[in-house]
Amino acid sequence: MHYKARSGLSNLEKWISENGYSGYDPYDVKGNPFIIKLTGLGNHNVAVSIFREIVFELFYTFPSLSRKISGIKPTVNAKAMGLFASSYLDLYFHNKDRQYYDKALYCLDWLKKNNAPDVQGYGWGYPFDWQSQRLIPAGTPNGIVTTAVGDAFWKHYKLSGDKESLDFCTGICTFLCTLPVDKISSDQICFSYTPLFINHVHNLNLFVAEFLIKTGTEIRNNEWMSMGHKALQYTISNQLENGAFDYNGPPEKPADHFDNYHTGFVLRMLYSIWKLTGREDVLASLTRCYRQYTSHFFEDNRIPKLMPDKKYRIDIHSCAESINCLSVLGNVFPEGLELAENILEWTVHNLQDESGYFYYGIVKSRFTGTTFKSKIPYIRWGQAWMFRALSSYLISSDQKKS
């Protein structure tokens, strides 16, 4: 299995070297002005909504062609650059190959030059318009992208002691504290996804909480640590009886949405916060969620399902996050490494192209019910996350051997 992971990583790295860091994204097409207008009209007209679904299905079935027709250009994605940088740094720390460190510095330098302007501190967003409660303009900094970038600067600081990288981490915390916050109670708050409106999303809330706690602990900023603990308390207080976390938290209407990769995000942040704080209630929450995750999100102990009751699409994002999550949590749940190995073997065998990149996944047509491999190489959604997953697995499995 070690060979499979190393060859998968080597082939992916070769593809990235040849093709660069720019690419398409599953959500870039929804920033097209025509699609934005069609989405809005379809919310109020049945006939238009049917036409909209047909258009979306065509985009789904012919992703590369539809983007060329729509005039959508490949872009460099800040989240992908953060993930690549974090992975390169981990690989350098693990085997001291200088090429990885140099590539990490390249990604970090790009991020330094491409942070969002006119914000307090440092923040990054997506390079395309995207739709949430309302349209989010391209470049609007948000907590998810910013904490992914922050993880790279944090790793660089911890690896090298670089003061500038720590300054970026503190600047990131400054930005995170400008996100709208819903004060639920004296000991519970929830951070919002973007600066534009209040919402309640558990995985985002934990990403922000984790970053505030670790950076606050490092520089002894009690306010950031306190905010992080209050955000953590909000999320673990809303864990469901079966151990799962809904995508939304109250007072949002329950989404009843439980997918593979967002659950993995929650698990990794709970694990990191537990390691930072030693809180037993966090370990208990983590354990309950882990048991629910490993019991319900995998078919035949190797194929990541999108949701507990929905196999398709078998998404590269789910594959990558499950490998990453189970590898990272291997210290406390060592049995998860075997599941990570099974998923890795299945993913490399079924979803890695001979040229080295990873497919979007195996999707199911909403109209015909047939399944097919969607072979578009999404840079953030697939390549960056699989690079992260493969590097995490290799490091965790080596640590287990030693």
How does this model look, in words?
- The protein is mainly alpha-helical and 402 residues long.
- Helix content is 59%, strand content 8%.
- It is built from 15 helices and 11 strands.
- Strand 7 and strand 8 form a beta hairpin.
Q: Can you write the helix and strand succession as a string?
A: HEHHHEHHEEHHEEHHHHEEEHHEEH
Query: So what's the overall shape?
Result: globular
Number of helices: 15
Sheet having the most strands: 3 strands, antiparallel
**Physical arrangement of strands within the biggest beta sheet:** 9-10-11
Q: How many strands?
A: 11
In round numbers, the mean pLDDT is 94
- Low-confidence parts, pLDDT < 50 over ≥5 residues? none
Strand content: 5-15%
> What class would the helix/strand composition place it in?
mainly alpha
**Cα distance, first to last residue?**
16 Å
What is the helical fraction, as a range of percent? 55-70%
Measured on Cα atoms, how large is the radius of gyration? 20 Å
Features of the shown structure:
402 residues, mainly alpha, three-stranded antiparallel sheet, two-stranded antiparallel sheet, 15 helices
Layout of strands and helices, then pairs:
Blueprint: H1 2-19, E1 22-23, H2 33-42, H3 46-61, H4 63-70, E2 75-76, H5 78-95, H6 98-113, E3 130-131, E4 135-136, H7 143-160, H8 163-176, E5 181-185, E6 188-191, H9 202-219, H10 222-237, H11 260-277, H12 280-296, E7 298-299, E8 303-304, E9 314-315, H13 316-328, H14 336-351, E10 361-364, E11 371-374, H15 379-401
Helix pairs in contact: 1-15, 2-3, 3-4, 5-6, 5-7, 5-15, 7-8, 7-9, 8-9, 9-10, 9-11, 11-12, 11-13, 13-14, 13-15, 14-15
